[in-house]
Amino acid sequence: MSEFDLIKRFFSRPTPSATLGVGDDAALLHIADGMELAVSTDMLVSGTHFFPDADPFLLGHKTLAVNLSDLAAMGAVPRWATLALSLPATEEAWLQRFSAGFFAVAAEYGVELVGGDTTRGPLNLSVTIMGEVPKGRALRRSGARAGDDIWVSGKLGDAALGLAHLQGRIKLPEQARNTCLASLHQPRPRVALGLALRGIASSVIDISDGLLADLGHILECSEAAAEVRYDRLPVSSLFASAGDEMQELAQSCVLSGGDDYELCFTAPVAQRDEIEALSSTLRLPLTRIGKIVSGQGCKVRTADGNVMPIKDTGYDHFA
């Protein structure tokens, strides 16, 4: 199968909102009046971001979903994507399942694939995602101010615990294993939440490398510090009932495990009622976990106020 046959068969779909989609040297896109274009790129590398024998359908889902999470953090409406694939071989069954997973997510969030590239090489997947946001209303990392509440969506740590199971660091019972692996392989980008946080949140980031690492980016961009209450973090009952032998792993998964793809955001205290109402409307837990303070860095405190020692703040590709 040639490169162009591969693209035509597995990755060509109608693109009604694009002036020109797949099949030329570049796509042509029309941005609506009064809108700005939000653009983000993420790469998934075999052996680094996923196991080489990963289910291709789930991998297709995750490849697009993690990019959509970046748009969610900007409060942007997803519109278009490009996909670059490096493939060791053209296995039709693998391509069929991968593209099915990718386009299932694309259909759910209204994304059109408008271009990309394919080449032979080690398995690498790279998506550039594009979305629209009204001028001047994009959510950013730089707006947190002392006194703001810190919030997170959903639960933390399940995906990292699923990875720990796959790595043989822990053995999970079946129900917990299924829950954690679903969080790892099929993250749910919080696009609706991002759109709803326009005009409410003072800063937003998606949690991909771990809560402390990504909250740290907000603190750096906002020139502020934070205090987080460990006992307030939203975690599954599996963490809450963890024995002493599992506490260190639980802490690592929740604070620095990564792959959550939830949103961490800050907002003035006056917005609490609106955020709690938003949680009910979206049927999505939104949990207040701490506050922004003056200074530098982030302190994690226990229920009695003691500062917890932190060994690892999150994932860094080059650390």
**Range of helix content:** 25-40%
Order of helices and strands: HEEEHEHEEEHHHEHEHHEHEE
Number of helices: 10
Give average pLDDT, whole number: 91
CATH architecture heading of the largest domain: Alpha-Beta Complex
Strand segment tally: 12
Strand content: 15-25%
The neighbouring-strand order within the major sheet is: 8-10-7-11-9-12
Uncertain regions: pLDDT < 50 for 5+ in a row? Answer: none
How many domains would you count in the coordinates?
A: 2
Q: CA-to-CA gap between the ends?
A: 40 Å
Radius of gyration: 20 Å
Q: Kindly identify the CATH topology of the largest domain.
A: Phosphoribosyl-aminoimidazole Synthetase, Chain A, domain 2
Shape: globular
| Major sheet summary line | 6 strands, mixed
Question: Could you name the CATH homologous superfamily of the largest domain?
Answer: PurM-like C-terminal domain
Based on helices, strands and strand pairing, what is the structural class?
Answer: alpha+beta
CATH class category label of the largest domain: Alpha Beta
